[in-house]
Amino acid sequence: MKYYALALLASIAVVTFVTAGPSEKVVRMTDSNSFDPKTITVKSGDTVVWKNGSAMSHSVTDVSSLAVDAKDAALPADAKEFNSDLIPPGKDWSYTFTVPGTYKYFCIPHEALGMVGSVVVSK
Ligand SMILES: [Cu+2]
After folding, report:
1. Interval 68-104: pLDDT, tens
2. Most buried residue, 14, 31, 49, 88, by CB count within 10 Å?
């Protein structure tokens, strides 16, 4: 009976851990030139991981001077621009957000095809 209770507690602990997860958020880069999800909300200090599961290279870029359309790049006043450069198929890239606010980013090769996304960072 005691062993049963222990086993039950252990499985509850495992389930709780898996459900809560680490504070790592995932955005997928797709073959249809999109970020999925297009908008992701995280907390300050969280790391977002972009995973390129597509057959093409993509980038995660929030640099206004590299944008074809200026409105595709935005960030809070006291945040720094970031750029992954090209992420090959099968590779990941991550960035930790420490300044709350709204970020708009794009993929350099596919910005004109609408490959843009947003990260909303709460406090
Ligand atoms: Cu792309």
Report:
1. 999 999 999 999 999 999 999 999 999 999 999 999 9
2. 49
In one letter, which amino acid is 87?
I
Query: What distance in angstroms lies between residue 108's CA and the mean position of ligand 1's atoms?
Result: 7
Sign of CA dihedral 104, 57, 82, 99: positive
Please report the domains of the chain, with CATH numbers, ordered by start residue. Answer: 23-122 (2.60.40.420)
Distance of CA 27 from the midpoint of ligand 1 (Å): 13
- Measured in Å, residue 79 CA sits from the centre of ligand 1 at 23
Cα–ligand 1 centroid distance for 109 (angstroms) = 5
Q: Which amino acid is at 3?
A: Y
**pTM (2 d.p.):** 0.81
User: Are 23 and 43 within 8 A, CB to CB?
Assistant: yes
Find residue 48's DSSP bridge partners.
25, 95
78-107 b/e with 16+ CB inside 10 Å = b?
ebeeebbebbeeeeebebebeebbebbbbb
Calculate how far, in angstroms, residue 23's C-alpha sits from the geometric centre of ligand 1.
25
